[in-house]
Amino acid sequence: MIRQSVHMKTGNLRKNIVVGSKVRIVEKHNQKNGALTNGIVKRILTNSSQHPHGIKVILTNGKIGRIKEIVSSHSEPKLKL
Fold first, then answer.
1. Distance between CA atoms of residues 61 and 54, nearest Å
2. Nearest to 38 by CA among 26, 50, 55
3. Gap between the Cα atoms of 17 and 66, Å rounded
4. Burial code of 7-22, b = ≥16 C-beta within 10 A, e = fewer?
5. HSE-CB of 36 using CA atoms within 13 angstroms
6. How far apart are CA 56 and CA 54, in angstroms?
7. Residue 30: left (phi > 0), alpha (psi -120 to 50), or beta?
8. Would you call 78 helix, strand, or coil by DSSP?
9. What 3-state DSSP class applies to 18?
């Protein structure tokens, strides 16, 4: 499998996460198999500045989990084509 080189931040630092960011999380019941869920951050649940397993968030669809990848930050400029 060939993987494209895409700049993605990990979700271990709270300062990298903004409400509205597109992220990939692992839910509690998927921690063993590592299945990721895509979504948009509604609220940040972790109060500390960092967490080794990822910052815990709730997505706009109501799912809760720890961020494994930040796909795009709401604060990043949009590309115009």
1. 19
2. 26
3. 12
4. eebebbebebbeeebe
5. 13
6. 6
7. alpha
8. coil
9. coil
Name the phi and psi angles at 62, rounded to 5: 90, -5
Alpha carbon distance 62, 27 (integer Å): 11
The position carrying tokens 């949009």 is 78
Residues 24/66, Cβ–Cβ less than 8 Å = no
CB contact at 8 A, 37 and 68: no
pLDDT block averages, 10 residues each, the chain of length 81: 52 93 96 95 96 96 96 64 56
Structure-token pair, residue 3 = 């993987």
Q: Whole-prediction pTM value?
A: 0.79
Q: Topology of 14-72 in CATH?
A: SH3 type barrels. (2.30.30)
Q: Give dist(CA 23, CA 27) in Å, integer.
A: 12
